[in-house]
Amino acid sequence: MRFLWLLLLVSIMIRADELDFLDEIDSDVGSFEEKKSAVDARVKLSFLKNESSDDDKIFYLRLAKQEKNYLYDVRFIADEDTQSFNIKELYYKGNFAEKSFYEVGRINIKEGVSRGYNPTDYFKGTHSLTLSNDPKERKENRLGSLLFSQTLFLDKWTLKAIYSPKISVSKNTLLSDAKYIGLHLDESNYHDRASLYVDYSGFEDVSSSVILHYNEDDLNFGFNLSYIYDSWIVYLENSLKYAKNEISKLEINPAIRDQFSSNKKYIDQATLGINYTSASNIVTTVEYIFNSGGLDDDDWDRWFELGKNPLYARELGSIREQIAKKESIQSRQSLFVLSRASDVMTNLDASVLAWVNPYDGSSLSQVGLEYSYHDNLQTNLFLRNYRGKTDSEYGSALNDYEVLIEAEYLF
């Protein structure tokens, strides 16, 4: 870990003029001039204390900048064993006409109105930099895809088209998965994909959109619908896919795949949610998630029965990890709850998050505290708990609890 602390020290020295305790106070207020930084940098140290598995110590460095016509976002991630440099996003934005805009480059497309799971987020699951059950982390910490998008604004209508080409590259190269610096184009652009979005805002307090998405294997039709009433928001996000379920697509032991593969030609995924903001500014979201291609009660029983065989146990764990990397849902039904309170004390935010499997009653819960010392320095504390029987979705996790401590400094 020595090089991590050295890198952190160098980063601080480079931008030492922005640290309060190193600043010289200038009594001449009139001479103050705001300096615009050429890059927005964020350094984060993360320590994850696990009950049974090895603890994780991770260093993150983010260098990003968003301007009118371009955006770049690069991430350096390192732990005690591995280091990687990733170009998360890099694209140019221009316009052909006053109401016609285009974007070209590596872009992280994030679609859908839901918080816990987005069935219409069709560009998800390309390459996750970190694995997390926190929906915000899942959406943000993934590589974008190389693509071209065109958006046209027409009064109450918005039309958007996206095309992302398939790119075939050799392994262990800069364009794929080189050890330290790899673009992972084989994972972010693994298929020819195209989407057409149509948004309509002509109804008062109602937002709606329809999406047609195509790739080499699947044809998808999705829609988002939300309604605002006072402090309440009710929404539905749905996707109908002409596709096989996730397990059927994996290259795994046929004995396992045959147990959970489906002959269904259509997979229906939907999230029905309700969001409420209280007078004290506590925002609470509750969602019911349905995935017809996921595991029901009988499937979960067969899953854990197979897991008793040492020949299958390791591969079943690998399957769960692959589905998580695709940012998909393994169970046929899930419940998601998120409640967040801002400024419970000065500069202190609190949150509660929970995932529940209704078949076996198992759950993953997380309580979080986020405290800002000032505009540039923030510390986070998260406590996660996995509850349930050993033969349940969350009760079968390696750890019963995890404690995550983070310190972030923004340049």
- The level of helicity is 10-25%
Oligomer: single chain
| Broad CATH class | Mainly Beta
- Low-confidence spans: 1-34
**Alpha-carbon distance between the termini?**
22 Å
Determine the strand fraction and express it as a percent band. over 45%
Please summarize the sheet with the most strands.
18 strands, antiparallel, barrel
Count of distinct structural domains: 1
Q: How many alpha or pi helices?
A: 7
Shape descriptor reads: globular
Q: What string, H for helix and E for strand, traces the elements in order?
A: HEEEEEHEEHEEEEHHEEHHEEEEE
CATH structural fold name: Porin
Specify the CATH architecture.
Beta Barrel
Brief rundown of the structure:
It is built from 7 helices and 18 strands.
Would you mind describing this structure in some detail?
The chain contains seven helices and 18 strands. The chain has 411 residues and is mainly beta. It has a single domain, classed as Porin (Beta Barrel), CATH 2.40.160. The protein has an 18-stranded antiparallel beta barrel. The longest helix has 16 residues, at 310-325. The two termini are 22 Å apart.
Please outline the helices and strands:
Layout: H1 2-14, E1 40-50, E2 56-66, E3 70-78, E4 83-97, E5 100-107, H2 135-140, E6 145-154, E7 157-164, H3 185-188, E8 193-200, E9 206-215, E10 219-229, E11 232-242, H4 246-249, H5 254-260, E12 266-277, E13 282-291, H6 297-307, H7 310-325, E14 333-345, E15 348-356, E16 363-372, E17 377-387, E18 401-410
Antiparallel strand pairs: 1-2, 1-18, 2-3, 3-4, 4-5, 5-6, 6-7, 7-8, 8-9, 9-10, 10-11, 11-12, 12-13, 13-14, 14-15, 15-16, 16-17, 17-18
